[in-house]
Write a structure and sequence with these properties.
There is one protein chain. By secondary structure, the chain is an all-alpha fold. It is built from 8 helices and no strands. Helix 1 runs parallel beside helix 4 and helix 7 runs antiparallel to helix 8. The chain is globular, with a radius of gyration of 20 Å. The N terminus is likely disordered.
């Protein structure tokens, strides 16, 4: 009788472990492809971009978190190459599809469950946009920089709209927090 009562829970636990491994594996592959695309756009050879992608996936920051059991932290970190790739200077800030894709990746990264990674990657994207947008005649580069920052702000607002569906039920609990 006790074995019959325990087996469904063991099966459920193994299913959750398999599902988590599948999800984190997909996120890792996605992060590797994101770095490969980023490398291609900054004019790296294929082998160099693949080496950088492998180095990112094998880094102690990701593998250490993975072995520590912080799978969703790793999943959120794997969105960073795609978000930086979307912040490259060659991206068109007036293209609605690119802004919507950027918003979707921002929302997915936030929904991984680690807002710290979301805020740090947002800061990195702003620095990346500033670094790529500033040219030697500063006055000439300001309008393009403003358009790119505006597109990033719009993507952030769209991502906030997607994330609000999940976060609004927790508004009642926020005042009871201890931090």
């Amino acid at each position: 009788v006790s074995v019959a009562g325990v087996l469904p829970f063991v099966g459920l636990r193994l299913w959750r472990v398999r599902w988590l491994a599948l999800c984190s594996g997909v996120e890792n592959v996605m992060g590797g492809f994101g770095l490969r695309e980023w490398g291609r756009d900054v004019v790296m050879t294929l082998w160099v971009s693949v080496l950088i992608a492998f180095s990112f996936l094998a880094s102690i920051a990701l593998t250490g978190r993975m072995f520590a059991g912080q799978f969703l932290y790793v999943c959120a970190t794997c969105y960073l190459p795609w978000l930086l790739w979307m912040s490259l200077p060659g991206a068109d800030p007036t293209n609605r599809r690119q802004v919507a894709t950027h918003a979707a990746f921002l929302a997915l990264q936030f929904l991984c469950g680690h807002p710290q990674i979301f805020w740090l990657s947002g800061l990195a994207q702003v620095v990346f946009i500033f670094g790529g947008g500033m040219k030697s005649p500063t006055r000439m580069s300001l309008p393009a920089l403003g358009r790119r920052l505006g597109a990033f702000a719009l993507a952030g607002l769209l991502a906030l709209g997607v994330v609000a569906v999940v976060l609004l039920p927790f508004v009642e609990i926020i005042p009871q927090g201890n931090r």
